[in-house]
Here is the input.
Amino acid sequence: MTGRLTHIVRHPIKSIGYEDIESAPLMQGRVLPFDRVWAVSHQAAKFDSPLGAWARKMNFLRGVAAPKLMAVQARLRPDGQLDLTHPERPALTVDPDRPGDQARLIDWLTPLWPESRPAPRAVERVEGVALADMAEPYVSLLSLSSLGALGQAAGREISRHRFRGNLWVEGWAPWAERDLVGKRLRLGAAVLEVAMPITRCRATCTDPATGTEDLELLDLLERLHGDWHFGCYATVIESGTITLGDPVEVL
Here is the structure.
């Protein structure tokens, strides 16, 4: 079963923006570079700020709690500055490591966060640790054919950005990735091992173009498969650079 890598996506700040890129070096036992480097904690977070280690997703701003966050787009500049856009907010450029810019980022995010929830508190970073949903250094792997099948079942086109995936593959049979757990893939110059399916949350019910909930996607997955799985987590076991168009081969 061979496919082709069609999209590489990173999310510099957890749950706040997505960015398509053309190539990336994958390193053994590491996540996609610059993916979930930062996260924004809220006032009810169960750790002191600054953060000293990986922490559970409940401590951070997330799209499941604030659908409007799903409409943020990001672009990481070579100098480390981050451009953020949203249909309801003015464009913002910040260096997430600078205290002054961190305050500006929190001010920018506050109108997108529900007043009924604990307010945004601080921009967090842990050197060498991705602040992803899982503590393990996973890369997420998803199928465009499965996305198309899901859209066909929904009767509408579904944006891939609902799923905040890293690597999108074209050319597999729909839902073939559900049988890949435990198998290894050669992707460009890298080798990955598929670890487990990804269980989805209500953030996927939000249209990332508008930041509004418009589709009961979890119900749809339940009807199709009896679970909320879409995509897989994988571990990089052999380092190598990946580029759009690379073949993806099951070993």
Q: What stands out?
A: The mean pLDDT is 97. Residues 99-109 form the longest helix (11 residues). Residues 146 and 176 are 8 Å apart (CA to CA).
